[in-house]
Amino acid sequence: MPESYPMNGGNGTYSYTQNSYYQKTGINVAKRMVSEAIGEKLDINNFSSGSNSFRIADLGCSVGPNTFTTMQNIVDAVQHKYQSQGLASKFAEFQVFFNDQDSNDFNTLFTSMPKERPYYAVGVPGSFYGRLFPESFVHFVNSSFALHWLSRVPEELLDKNSPAWNKGRIHYTNASDAVVDAYAAQFTKDMEGFLDARAKELVSGGMMVIITLGCPNGMPYAHLAAGIMFDCLESCLNDMAKGGLLSENQVDSFNLPVYAPSPKEKTELVERNGCFSIERLELTNWRTEADPRGDLRACVMHVRAGFESIIRKHFGNDIIDDLFERLLKEVKESFHLIQSSYMGGTQLSVILKRK
């Protein structure tokens, strides 16, 4: 069974709901590209008969509010497509299927859902690395900032006899080639399962949008701001181990299950699957839309909202506040490295069409 990595639920200070600005920015960056692709490429004539429902799935929806913005954008673009072709009456109703792991805070998701919305909402718990829907069921699939989460930590990283044993490190940033290869292999396996499942579930002519963390072809992840952030977190955990606040073995056995693919990797996986055409694939720079009021504390809060649950599960509750205060200090000390990191596109946006 895939591991579960829920974002911080609820609506509190450290919740994903209050600390997902960067994802919101990324979604806004991709909005125009998605709307254009729907207008130009969505084959509505292929499925304008039969049921009068247009079914949309958001895979890895988390707890909101970004999923609601994304779904509204997609519904608006699809409605405009039907109206522009004189088919507005063909799909009078929209259904949106909100999917995430069983451990996701669906209560917060549904209680914060807009009361006035142009669709019927359904919750679908389960891993998107396997089947979720019947064959030829959904017309449009969206997955924003979810598919860079691996289904599990590669087993080799925890094997002391493996060249990929990741002792003293928590990610593939600045790690050995064997560690990078283990992460890449797990990502490949996960994406193959994801694409196989979606190929069965999407109707012919249906579309899929995937937005993830990305990395330019051939560039080490250490050159990216996110890689520097992971190094800072690693340094804090190692310092806490040296200080006796946690054990060295705990650090050695902890790895962040996140992988940022390159455009080349994603292209090869889609082409190997053979069921989708690539309509758009590009690295975009969300920083051009970044909030100028953002600060380092807000950045650390963002990291906490995303990673606190898996850190707590591994290390326990007692270190959490101390760890993230240390992280804030470490990030401030490393700010010159972040400022000099690669400033180009690190958001990989892909639009696929079911053949």
Give the rounded overall mean pLDDT: 92
Uncertain ranges:
none
Structural class: alpha/beta
Name the overall outline.
globular
Cα radius of gyration in angstroms: 21 Å
Content of β-strand: 15-25%
List the SSEs and their pairings:
Layout: H1 21-41, E1 53-59, H2 66-84, E2 93-100, H3 106-111, E3 120-125, E4 138-144, H4 177-201, E5 202-213, H5 225-242, H6 248-252, H7 263-273, E6 276-284, H8 296-315, H9 320-333, H10 335-339, E7 347-354
Parallel strand pairs: 1-2, 1-4, 2-3, 4-5
Antiparallel strand pairs: 5-7, 6-7
Helix pairs in contact: 1-2, 4-7, 5-9, 8-9
Keywords: Magnesium, Metal-binding, Methyltransferase, Transferase
GO molecular function: metal ion binding; methyltransferase activity
Organism: Theobroma cacao
Describe the protein in words.
This protein has ten helices and seven strands. By secondary structure, the protein is an alpha/beta fold. Strands 3-2-1-4-5-7-6 form a seven-stranded mixed beta sheet, with helices on both faces. Helix 4 links the parallel strand 4 (138-144) and strand 5 (202-213). The longest helix has 25 residues, at 177-201. It is globular and about 70 Å long. 40% of the residues are buried. The model has no long low-confidence stretch (mean pLDDT 92). InterPro entries: MeTrfase_7 (IPR005299), MeTrfase_capping (IPR042086), SAM-dependent_MTases_sf (IPR029063). One of its GO terms (molecular function) is methyltransferase activity. Keywords: Magnesium, Metal-binding, Methyltransferase, Transferase. One of its GO terms (biological process) is methylation.
